[in-house]
Amino acid sequence: MLAVKDKLARGEVASMVMVNYPSAALVEHIGKLGFDAAFIDCEKGSATTEHIENMCRGARAAGICAVVRPWSADAGLISRYLDLGANGIMQAGIESVGEAQALVAAVRYARWSDWQDKLVIGMIESPQAIALLPQLLDVEGIDAWFVGPNDLAHRMGFPGQAAVRAEVRDAVAGAVRTISAAGKVAGTLATPESTPAVVAAGARLLLTRTTELMAIGAQQFHDQVRRAAQTRSNAPESGDKT
Question: Would residue 218 count as lying in a domain?
Fold first, then answer.
């Protein structure tokens, strides 16, 4: 079993990083930093087939899971990504039981000998999907349900406002609680500010981005530079007897 699946099966919280730049070395480094999975976004990202294969290879080298999100639910496309080395598939915009079942069937058909070792994630990204959760959660073979706040905000009429609209935050937390209460693994996007709340609601698969991690590190560095510069400017010059 994948290490991340085993971790989730034990009831622990797992971390996944969206690799915003198509780089195998970056994927490998993410693993060395202690994250459980690398998320390769082929719905909105720029990774080519060759990039995906090498990024999956980087994940194997680091001992972490490579999850690919295809740009469509086409079974042949899912099969191709799994053949390239993906350990998991995250399918966007699931809004019917049939779509969830088709995702499971596509993974099991493509990886008939080892589908148990693949991480299958369905995305909840609309009010309609949230309303259908009781039926969706009965579908066997989905390892985690991921609530996507940005597309959800757009479909709720608040594009670009997922982090600031209470209606969206409440909808995400409510969906996470519903998934968790059903004994299923819930996931969502997490920031340093939102992590305590989403984990308290029951989320156990947390997604961040390399760009956000870089921004946090850069801000901390710049703050240190400013403080050091201020301390230096306030220090008395050598030989000052005042």
Answer: no
User: Concatenated DSSP letters for 158-216?
Assistant: -TT-TTT-HHHHHHHHHHHHHHHHTT--EEEE--TTTHHHHHHHTEEEEEEEHHHHHHH
β 144-147/119-124 pair status: parallel
- The answer to whether residue 235 is domain-embedded is no
* 108 closest CA partner among 143, 134, 69, 133: 143
- Find, among 220, 225, 217, 193, the residue nearest to 206 by Cα: 193
CATH of the domain at 139: 3.20.20.60
Q: Is residue 239 part of a domain?
A: no
DSSP state of 69: E
Rg of the chain's alpha carbons, rounded to an integer? 21
Residue 94 pLDDT greater than 70, yes or no:
yes
Q: What CA–CA distance (Å, rounded) separates 209 from 202?
A: 21
User: Residue 66: what residue type?
Assistant: A
**Total of domains in the chain:** 1
Per-residue pLDDT tens digits for 100-143: 999 999 999 999 999 999 999 999 999 999 999 999 999 999 99
Measured from the Cβ of residue 185, the count of other Cβ atoms closer than 10 Å reads 22
Domain residues for 22?
Answer: 3-210
Pairing type for strands 144-147 and 203-209 reads: unpaired
Write out 104-126 in H/E/C secondary structure.
Answer: HHHHHHHCCCCHHHCEEEEEECC
For residue range 209-223, what is the model confidence (pLDDT) as tens digits?
A: 999 999 999 999 999
